[in-house]
Structures are given as C-alpha cells and as structure tokens.
C-alpha cells in the first residue's frame, strides 16, 4: 500500500507548489497589463508630453512653453531629464511608446529579482513569482504601464541604491539614485539614509549626476530658464486634481485649512518619531529592516504631507511591504495591510446606485491607504517603545541591543541557509 501511495500521491513541497501556481498566472497578468491595457492606454497619457518635449529638445524648440493651467498631463522634468528622455523621439511616437512599455516591464522584472535578492532569497524560490504576482496585481504597476510613466525606472534606481549602499559601494549607489533625481526628485528624501550612516561619497553621485546632466543640457536646450521661472513654481503648488496628498485631497473635498495643516503636522511628527526609533534600535542590529522601513516612512510621509502625491507613487513602498518577511517588521499587523489595500488596489469603487458614496471612496482610497499604513507603522514602533520604557531599558540602548542582536540577525540569511531551512518544510 505505501508503494501504491507513492505513485498515487506524489509528494511536493509548498515551496514548489507556489511557483507552479503563480508563474503561469503572473505571466498572463504581465501580458494583460502591458500588451493589452498598456497599449490600449487611457485618457491620461503621461508619455505624450514627454515625447513632445524630447522631440522639441532635439529640434532646438521650446520645451517648457505649455499652458500649466489645464488638467492635462504636463511635462515637468528638468533639462537633465529632457536630455535623458531625448532618445525617445528618435522614432515615431507609437513605436516609441510601445518600446517604453516593454522597457518598463523588463525594469519591473529586474526590480522583482533585486528585491528578492535584497531580502536574501534565491531567484528559484517561491518568493520571486509571488513578488511579481503582487507587482502586476496592483494599481501602481498597472497605471504606470497604462499611463506610460517613468516610475518603474525610479523603483529600479531605488533598489539599486539600497543594494549598493548596503554593500558599501558608495560611488555606484550615488550614481544610481542620481540618475533618478535627474528625471524626478521623488527619491530625494532617501538621502537622509546615507547622511545618518555617514556614507558621504554617495552624495557625490547623488548631487553630481543631476548637476552634470543639467550642465550638459542647459546650452543645447532652447528655453531652460523657463523651467526655473514657470515649471518649478508650478511644482511647488498643491493642486486639487490627481493629487492624493493631504492638501490635494483636502482642497478637492473642501476641508478646512486648519485641519489640513494639523494633519500634515501630525503625520510629520509620526515620521520623526518612527525614524528616530528605527535608527536608535535597529540601525546596528538589523540594517536591512532599518533601511527598508525607514525608506517607506520617508516616502509615504512625503506623499502625504507634500504638495503632490499620486497613487502610482505607491510602487516605491514595495521594500517596506517586503519587510513582512523579517523579524521585527512593522507590517505584521492587519491595519497595515488594510492600508496597503487602499493605496495599492486596482479595484474601482464607482457606484451607479450610490454615486456620491462610491465617488468619495474612490477619491479617498489612496489617501486613507497611505495614512493607515503610516499610523500602523507608527503605532507598532510606539508600542515597542512603551514596552521598553515599562521594562526600564528604553534609555539604555547598549543593554537593549545586545540580546536583540542575538535573536534578530544583523544581516539577512544567505540563500543557501534559507534553502536549507526550506528543505525542512514538510511536503504536502
């Protein structure tokens, strides 16, 4: 009978079952999001102004002369970004857009691989297909491809920056984040991390790359001063459309100014405490957890309290979400994942029966998602701090960190160690 069972009930581990299930589904999702939805496009087209600006740049025509009072997508990249984007105009706009979508998909696949390796897992484990499946099920990835935005390359630069910074390859880490800053300054808050670790060489590339590209682009651009006089002031203003930040959302729904200011101050204070606690108690015991959680806090706070926060910026929070695999993660609670649903879901809440209610849910989901995520992280760390105070060790970092270092690994286990652990999982 046992011999018969061997053939009737072949044994297979969970780690093998998960890839078998997710790989075919994920590949078809990637095809759907890129070839079908991406090529179809939508009423919002972030690629068109970029292509037109690149074409104008190559033909020595004004780049920053559009009317910024409309709600259409505008070209907002600095001259350094225009220089990097200019090869897009070498071919016709349709094929250029298709190539950009294809390159974005490749970048996302590389991002999934890098984030898998960053957290210590091999590419042939269940983690990579799970990460890719999650990537392409979210609104942030779907709309990045549909609207044809630059976000996937920002995420790629962010992950490269983290891996290189953690490996102490400071020159290359600076170049990685510097290339993203040359196009979009959304990762600028992450420069606090090398500032805290005193990795000064990172700033050479982070500042030098955008500066060098701007110096190169300035004399060959027709109207670079218009970026400073027209576009830059516009970037500093909060708008009440396509803006999920506290101020943008509040302006749209007519929230009182004092309440908007109060909320922005409250979330800023939450971030300050969270960053302080993470640096004091995790920086020297678990650098990966400190770096990825701190980056999530910095970026999520920027999206909420800044002048502009768009839903597909949530892509940059993927490293924070991945910390759920680490001991000590602030993502191991259900309110955090309720927030993740709000700012990552591809579900639409428009309702024919309850029109105003559905509209309010749809326009608020990203804002409350970011807010709940920040509150969950803050409360997790606050409760830990209160427990430390109750135990009488909150002010004695050395005494607290010694046992923590013994129970929480300072670095992520190697893929070989993880594979050994996985081999101990019983087959089903």
TrEMBL record:
GO cellular component assignments: plasma membrane
Biased composition (Basic and acidic residues): 418-428
Annotated InterPro entries: GT87
Membrane topology, as annotated: Multi-pass membrane protein
Region (Disordered): 408-428
One Pfam match: GT87
Keyword Nuclease set for record: no
Residues spanning the membrane: 20-39, 98-115, 145-165, 171-193, 200-220, 258-279, 366-386
Molecular function terms, GO-annotated: hexosyltransferase activity
Chief place where the protein resides: membrane
Cell location: Cell membrane
Keywords of this entry: Cell membrane, Membrane, Transferase, Transmembrane, Transmembrane helix
Family affiliation: Belongs to the glycosyltransferase 87 family.
Name of the protein in its database record: DUF2029 domain-containing protein
Organism: Gordonia desulfuricans
Taxonomy of the source species: Bacteria, Bacillati, Actinomycetota, Actinomycetes, Mycobacteriales
